[in-house]
């Protein structure tokens, strides 16, 4: 940069208030976590060095990893029979990493297809072995997750992989699928939003940027007896067992992402744990779903009512033109990120754990006003 060059400034809120961030991800984080991160970016633990600058093999980062793993176990209610890993590559990396480790050319894995992310996971798994699409949600426009009697499972399957919450279509499972195979869950868009039988799973994974932390780190919870079966004839950085042995630090890990995730785990515990978090999430989602159902048909939900997500509320107005107008006017009211995913269209309000109820109330108020003007 030459002498005298100025860096252009960006607009800031004139009121000092934060915009209601309905984005599906990267998404809202708890304000106490952001405030603690502000402090620790400058100086963590009185070390005189910020978290971004510490060695990933030094005592400060050792503590960050140890506390994050311990608090993760507390939130999930799991013991030492599970390994906690913090990996790179996003949840999408797990679409390939999982079958690379646990699916052989002679074996078959079950994959119920409930939307975009499972479709991508199926495509990757087919590179390594046989895939049985146990349920084809495309036949129903992905409007629901399958009941057990809708799935066709494989005897002796290597594992069953499912996505517990569909960010794009706004559906979720009420309970995990029933199977005798090892159960693997992609919980990226709802991780730690409600009590879940984590101990029924061989592995659970989640990209952080929706409900756990910033983009760039993925949480893996994997049972040790399942981990022992992982194929080790894979590239070192894709070797679950090597990553576990190195405490997720085969190379320089996304330290800041792990730090923030650890702060989020602590925040969840301070909220009262998953039962308390679920109560708040259910109440927030009910406000919006009641507005949709009570609109006299002006708003239409995308997901079937018995499979509605509390994290991603998907809906439409009577036309694409009105959808666009809704998004533009909402943004003028400091409500951002309401555009639906390109594969589903319409509108989507993502209201993750940290999203405030006040924001849901403001959205519902705006929905009523918008419908009254448009009719």
Give a quick summary of the entry.
35% of the residues lie in helices and 15% in strands.
Describe this structure in words.
The structure is a single chain. This protein has two domains: 113 residues, Aspartate Aminotransferase, domain 1; 236 residues, 3-Layer(aba) Sandwich (Aspartate Aminotransferase, domain 2), CATH 3.40.640. It contains ten helices and 14 strands. About 2% of the residues have low confidence. Helix 1 packs across helix 7. It is globular. The chain is of the alpha/beta class.
Quote the average pLDDT. Answer: 95
User: How many strands appear in the DSSP assignment?
Assistant: 14
CATH superfamily of the largest domain: Type I PLP-dependent aspartate aminotransferase-like (Major domain)
Shape: globular
What is the terminal separation in angstroms?
A: 55 Å
Low-confidence segments, given as residue ranges, are 7-15
Element-by-element helix/strand order = EHHEHEHEEEEEEEHHHHEEHEEH
- CATH fold node name of the largest domain: Aspartate Aminotransferase, domain 2
Oligomeric category: single chain
Task: Please describe the topology of this protein.
Layout: E1 20-21, H1 31-42, H2 59-76, E2 82-87, H3 90-102, E3 108-113, H4 116-125, E4 130-136, E5 160-163, E6 165-166, E7 171-172, E8 183-186, E9 203-207, E10 218-223, H5 224-227, H6 240-245, H7 255-271, H8 274-293, E11 300-301, E12 312-316, H9 320-332, E13 335-336, E14 347-350, H10 357-374
Parallel strand pairs: 1-13, 3-4, 5-8, 8-9
Antiparallel strand pairs: 2-10, 6-7, 9-10, 11-12, 12-14
């Amino acid at each position: 940069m030459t002498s005298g060059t100025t860096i252009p400034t960006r607009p800031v809120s004139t009121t000092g208030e934060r915009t209601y961030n309905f984005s599906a991800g990267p998404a809202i984080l708890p304000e106490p976590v952001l405030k603690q991160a502000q402090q620790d970016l400058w100086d963590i633990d009185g070390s005189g060095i910020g978290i971004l600058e510490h060695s990933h093999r030094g005592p400060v980062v050792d503590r960050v990893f140890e506390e994050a793993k311990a608090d993760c176990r507390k939130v999930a209610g799991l013991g030492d029979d599970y390994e906690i890993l913090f990996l790179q590559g996003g949840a999408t990396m797990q679409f390939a990493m999982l079958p690379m480790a646990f699916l052989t050319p002679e074996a078959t894995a079950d994959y119920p297809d409930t939307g975009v992310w499972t479709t991508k996971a199926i495509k990757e798994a087919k590179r390594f072995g046989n895939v049985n699409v146990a349920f084809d949600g495309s036949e129903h426009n992905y409007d629901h997750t399958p009941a057990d009697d809708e799935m066709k499972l494989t005897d002796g399957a290597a594992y069953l992989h499912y996505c517990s919450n569909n960010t794009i279509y706004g559906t979720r499972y009420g309970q995990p699928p029933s199977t005798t195979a090892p159960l693997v869950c992609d919980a990226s868009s709802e991780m730690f939003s409600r009590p879940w039988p984590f101990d029924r799973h061989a592995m659970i994974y989640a990209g952080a940027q929706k409900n756990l932390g910033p983009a760039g780190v993925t949480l893996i919870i994997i049972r040790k007896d399942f981990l022992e079966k992982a194929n080790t004839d894979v590239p070192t950085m894709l070797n679950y067992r090597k990553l576990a042995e190195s405490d997720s630090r085969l190379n320089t890990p996304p330290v800041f992402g792990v730090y923030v995730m650890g702060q989020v785990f602590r925040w969840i515990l301070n909220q009262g744990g998953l039962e308390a978090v679920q109560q708040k999430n259910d109440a927030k989602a009910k406000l919006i779903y009641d507005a949709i159902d009570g609109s006299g048909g002006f708003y239409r939900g995308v997901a079937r009512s018995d499979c509605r997500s509390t994290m991603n509320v998907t809906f439409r107005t009577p036309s694409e033109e009105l959808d666009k107008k809704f998004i533009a006017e909402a943004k003028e009211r400091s409500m951002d990120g309401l555009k639906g995913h390109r594969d589903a269209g319409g509108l989507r309000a993502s209201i993750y754990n940290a999203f405030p109820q006040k924001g849901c109330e403001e959205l519902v108020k705006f929905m009523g006003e918008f419908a009254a003007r448009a009719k």
